[in-house]
């Protein structure tokens, strides 16, 4: 069998949540199925890191798909042409998009429906692309994978998809090597006490409320506790920058930009807690990576974040800065709470396994393709 994979999010040194998830699932599927050929469809020059397997054929097809108009061209013109040229039997797209024009079986992963929950937080053209094409993609797919039960239920409720057509495949944790000798930002002493967030910076991540809650926390505590944010400035970041500039503790708030896995691992391991209070997530990979680092977690008390964290996190209302500040205070003041959350987080990790998720994907794709 020749299985085509949408690999446009596999960009070495620039991957975020969906990109990491794509790679962890794809590479395991490739390893599980040496008898099959995998055609990786890139939209730009690729790193050989992703093509070292004997049963992989890398293919670059234009145009680079990073804009709604280009998404349409890539998926509805370039992808079907490539699938036909390389004689693919199935097409698996783990980033939420697929091709409507191809005639071969297609398999799709949907990570969230955040655009429906927060339409004003999504760029205009992106929102309308999602609004128009998401239901078409869901209808087209022979089978749909999601990364949480929360997303599965959301798809069923919003689009009337039968539950038998949807399988939940939890993400796992990245294998980030912890290096205690990893240099940290020169502005931040190695002995610093800090809260930590990592991920893209945009409105849905609720960074503005995190900063406002931090202001309340600092006003109640004399110690110099920092707040570190790692991740690229994505879109609509003016309110975040305004909250930062207006904070009386702005000198203790640091935006570190996009960091290597080793640097993230370092900051995560040494943090008081990960503060991940997003307004809407399909999964929330930083939570389980904090569990693996034995770092306490403060996260949102609803949706997928509550599902994924289980008993391993301190839950707060992401819309209530007083409640977020309360959580920060409890973590800071209560050593035994930090220890118990670290232990509880480790216990939750057994639910999240890339190998199991890749096996589910592989079994369903190969079986339905035969049918």
Describe this structure in words.
Strand 8, helix 6 and strand 9 form a beta-alpha-beta unit. This protein has 2 domains: 2-172 and 353-370, Glycogen Phosphorylase B (Rossmann fold, 3-Layer(aba) Sandwich); 193-351, Rossmann fold (3-Layer(aba) Sandwich). The strands form 2 sheets. Strands 3-2-1-4-5-6-7 form a 7-stranded parallel beta sheet, sandwiched between helices. It has a 6-stranded parallel beta sheet with strand order 10-9-8-11-12-13, with helices on both faces. It is of the alpha/beta class and 371 residues long. The chain is elongated, with a radius of gyration of 21 Å. The two termini are 13 Å apart. Helix 6 runs parallel beside helix 7 (238-246), helix 6 packs across helix 11 (321-333) and helix 9 crosses helix 12. The protein has 13 helices and 13 strands.
Compile the SSE list and pairings:
Layout: E1 2-6, H1 17-32, E2 37-42, E3 56-60, H2 68-85, E4 90-93, E5 106-110, H3 114-117, H4 124-140, E6 143-146, H5 149-159, E7 166-168, E8 193-198, H6 207-219, E9 225-230, H7 238-246, E10 253-257, H8 261-270, E11 273-276, H9 285-292, E12 297-300, H10 303-309, E13 314-316, H11 321-333, H12 335-348, H13 354-370
Parallel strand pairs: 1-2, 1-4, 2-3, 4-5, 5-6, 6-7, 8-9, 8-11, 9-10, 11-12, 12-13
Helix pairs in contact: 1-13, 6-7, 6-11, 9-12
């Amino acid at each position: 069998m020749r299985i085509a994979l949408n690999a446009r999010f596999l960009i070495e040194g620039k991957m975020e949540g969906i990109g990491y998830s794509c790679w962890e699932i794809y590479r395991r599927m490739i390893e599980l199925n040496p008898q099959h050929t995998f055609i990786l469809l890139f939209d730009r020059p690729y790193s050989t890191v992703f093509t070292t397997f004997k049963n992989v054929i890398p293919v670059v097809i234009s145009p680079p798909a990073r804009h709604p108009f280009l998404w349409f061209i890539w998926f509805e013109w370039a992808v079907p042409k490539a699938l036909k040229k390389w004689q693919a039997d199935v097409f698996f797209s783990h980033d939420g998009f697929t091709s409507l024009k191809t005639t071969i079986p297609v398999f799709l992963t949907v990570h969230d429906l955040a655009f429906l929950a927060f339409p004003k937080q999504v760029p205009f053209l992106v929102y309308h692309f999602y609004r128009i094409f998401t239901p078409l993609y869901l209808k087209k797919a022979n089978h749909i994978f999601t990364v949480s039960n929360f997303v599965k239920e959301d798809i069923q409720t919003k689009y009337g998809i039968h539950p038998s057509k949807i399988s939940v495949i939890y993400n796992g944790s990245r294998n980030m090597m912890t290096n205690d000798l990893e240099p940290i930002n020169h502005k931040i002493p190695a002995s610093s006490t800090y809260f930590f967030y990592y991920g893209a910076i945009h409105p849905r991540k609720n960074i503005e409320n995190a900063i406002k809650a931090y202001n309340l926390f600092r006003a109640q505590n004399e110690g110099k506790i920092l707040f570190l944010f790692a991740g690229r400035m994505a879109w609509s970041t003016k309110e975040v920058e305004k909250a930062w500039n207006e904070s009386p503790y702005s000198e203790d708030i640091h935006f570190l930009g996009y960091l290597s896995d080793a640097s993230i691992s370092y900051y995560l391991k040494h943090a008081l807690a990960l503060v991940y209070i997003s307004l809407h997530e399909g999964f929330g990979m930083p939570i389980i990576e904090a569990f693996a680092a034995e770092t306490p977690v403060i996260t949102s008390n609803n949706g997928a974040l509550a599902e994924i964290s289980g008993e391993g996190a301190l839950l707060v209302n992401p819309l209530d800065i007083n409640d977020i500040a309360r959580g920060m205070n409890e973590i800071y003041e209560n050593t035994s709470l930090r220890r118990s959350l670290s232990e509880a987080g480790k216990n939750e990790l057994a639910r999240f396994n890339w190998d199991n998720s890749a096996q589910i994907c592989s079994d369903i794709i190969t079986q339905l393709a035969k049918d």
